[in-house]
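User: I'm putting together notes for a lab meeting next week and I want to include a structural view of one of the chains we've been expressing. I don't have a solved structure, so I'd like a prediction I can at least talk through. The sequence is below, exactly as it appears in our construct file.
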Amino acid sequence: MTDVIRALANGETAGTDIEVGPLVTRAVNTTYRETPLPVVQAELDHADVPYAVVLDEAGGPEGMLTEVDIIEVARVEEGEDDTGESIADEDDDWKWEGIKATGNRYLPTRNVEIPTEPAHRFMSGDLVTVTRKRTAQDAAQLMISNDIEQLPLMTADDLVGILRDVDLLAAVIEDE
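Assistant: Thanks for the context. Below is the predicted structure for the 176-residue chain, given as structure tokens.
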């Protein structure tokens, strides 16, 4: 994906002069700045997108939070889980004669722990945006130079869509 976006940014592929307005997805995944990070992770899973535009107190876009941002602060906790005794009690009808519990079994576990602080503590605060009239090449250059995969589309101060790298890829394929 990055190679195609880089080629588009450098003008080495078709579709460089396409305006991004028609390419954007109108449904934008957003989250409030005070939302705890584990809740944001659940929102991303349910929305099936790798980003959330973080909204400020007034509902305006303030930053971007991605799965990569969450993975960077998550840590894996290793431990054990007691499986308990899987032997029947004396009164169970299915108990075999003479079988006795000789101990418990333990299974190793790994749990991902995500900090519970609010989203704004982990977001990228320098929100890079585009307008409808920007070209696909301009957008690709912004993505490459800022190492990002999506750009919010703004009309004045309103968030009206999101341009993702896959949207640019689709435009390049259609234009060839």
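A couple of points you could mention at the meeting. Residues 63 and 127 are 5 Å apart (CA to CA). The chain has a mean pLDDT of 87.

User: Perfect, that's what I needed.
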